[in-house]
Amino acid sequence: MPEYPEMEHYRSQLSSLLCGQKISSVVVNRAASINEPVEAFAEALKDRTVLFVERRGKHLLFHLDDGHRLLLHLMLGGWLAYGEEGPEPDSRFQVILTFGNGSSLYFGGLRLGYLHRITAKVALELMKELGPEPFDPRLTLEAFRKRLGSKRGKLKTTLTDQRFLAGIGNCYSDEICFVARVHPAAATNRLDEAASERLYHAMHKVLQDAKEAGGYMEHPLTSDDQLTGGYNERCYVYDRKDEPCDECGTPIRFETMSGRKMFFCPNCQPED
């Protein structure tokens, strides 16, 4: 599932490609991916101009010139492509927006994800449910510690809770825990000050590095996109079951927690 680095990477690319562009046509191949009748959705978007693209947590919000927003959540398996031609037959994409410049934005894999047209008021209400952004300047080390101390349960569950922090999921929670040398199953409210500080700085390091590397998803946005997926080969532990830890050589262990994948090094991240 795309997380902060992937969605921020999408936002950055799409901002330069879409801002000021007018939607000329809309194709919907899966009505369940949108939130209103297909004809009404297509008619409402035709001739609308994209003013800017915003990211909040794992969501993208396309701000339109009529005051509405297109709210995108890719969920598990969703991805985007942009260009004059899609990388696969058009029928494989749930929604296609074509712009006046002749290029199209293709929304693929939206079996669980969605693209909803909503008002600005509804968007604000929905986003209020999310926790702070990892790089929000108001999320100081002290504020981070207070949030951790107020949470019960396991650390991985806490880090992936979008009400605690917006944008972190399975992959980067494991990566952050590894860099911080904390076991992902540690009790959140029992972490000492040293561990919470390591987590705070590890969060910033991992997410920044992953964003600059294009995230871990392997679907390039455009035909000349050479960056997307660059972090996939840099993962410390995620999706590396039984591979040797880069730090100590111990095989990476895989377990599940509350139905989520969990990867860690049992030597570098000993369980208390």
UniProtKB/TrEMBL annotation:
Q: Does the keyword DNA-binding apply?
A: yes
Keywords, alphabetical: DNA damage, DNA repair, DNA-binding, Glycosidase, Hydrolase, Lyase, Metal-binding, Multifunctional enzyme, Zinc, Zinc-finger
InterPro entries per the record? Answer: FPG_cat, FPG_Glyclase, FPG_N, H2TH_FPG, Ribosomal_uS13-like_H2TH, Znf_DNA_glyclase/AP_lyase, Znf_FPG/IleRS
Cite the GO molecular-function annotations of the record: oxidized purine nucleobase lesion DNA N-glycosylase activity
Q: Does the keyword Hydrolase apply?
A: yes
Q: Catalyzes what?
A: Hydrolysis of DNA containing ring-opened 7-methylguanine residues, releasing 2,6-diamino-4-hydroxy-5-(N-methyl)formamidopyrimidine; 2'-deoxyribonucleotide-(2'-deoxyribose 5'-phosphate)-2'-deoxyribonucleotide-DNA = a 3'-end 2'-deoxyribonucleotide-(2,3-dehydro-2,3-deoxyribose 5'-phosphate)-DNA + a 5'-end 5'-phospho-2'-deoxyribonucleoside-DNA + H(+)
- Every Formamidopyrimidine-DNA glycosylase catalytic domain range: 2-100
Coiled coil ranges:
none
Which PROSITE patterns has this protein been placed in? FPG_CAT, ZF_FPG_2
Tell me the cofactors it needs: Zn(2+)
Domain FPG-type, chain residue ranges per copy:
236-270
Family per similarity comment: Belongs to the FPG family.
Q: How does it assemble?
A: Monomer.
Protein name (record):
Formamidopyrimidine-DNA glycosylase
Organism of this sequence: Cohnella boryungensis
Q: What is the lineage of its organism?
A: Bacteria, Bacillati, Bacillota, Bacilli, Bacillales
